[in-house]
Known about the structure:
alpha/beta, six-stranded parallel β-sheet, four-stranded parallel β-sheet, 11 helices, 17% strand
Amino acid sequence: KIVVQSPPLLLSFISVLVLSLMRKKIILNVSDLWPLAAIELKALKKDSFSHHISLFFEQFIYSKATLIFGQSNEIITHIHSIFPEKECYLYRNFPDHQTKEIDFIADVNEPVKLFYAGLLGVAQGVFELCQNIELQNLDIELHIFGDGAEKFQIEELIKQNPEKKIFFHGMLERNILHEKLKSFDIALVPLKTRIYGSVPSKIFEYGALGFPVLYFGGGEGETIVRESNLGWVAHVGNFESLNSSLKEISKTGKSEIQTMKSTVFDTAEKHFNLDFQIKDLINKGVF
């Protein structure tokens, strides 16, 4: 039994090809739908030669997999639209819960600290978000951690617009970042465009750390945040909706947000639990 991860699509194609010739049981874990996601991100031109080759790779790995894990219901729906009889299971990208209790450093006299930590790339659209976010008259700061293609644009924007209350901290080691975030309040999870099948794992990771989220990515992730009461949702690509959510957060205040952290932490421990998920799949005979 061998687990194969997709994407990357080319690597998963080669792996599945070789393993199918060796008659191995292939468990395919699909975390994003390629090439569909590449089309939506405009990284690949629809109906191009590369697109058709990628579609062949995609259909091949689905057809040869013994069973498939999809990290969202949309992924499973897409696979079943191609291979209706294929054995598929929902497998969320939950973190391994090692934190037994939340450990925050709270100062109710400070502004609400909103943070983004991760890749500063095209898909996240953090630079455009920084251009359009309106914090001037709110008791909120935005702190950014990470690196990527938009880093220098973000740094220049902050330098020229100090009144925007945006602060850039660069890239930090994971354990150092988690320690620093103890004094922060709300995690920002953005996507530049709604990507079918995509559910950012940051939703679950921040939940496990006890952070409410401001989700700005659309799709199934939006449904999870709403139904699990994990924080606030702004319509993807709609900065008026984002700024409206920020006003709501500012009115909520620091004290109530501290109470929300405990609720989010408990929700994550019960419903976004990797051990529970694995045990359930074992009971179903998947492994």
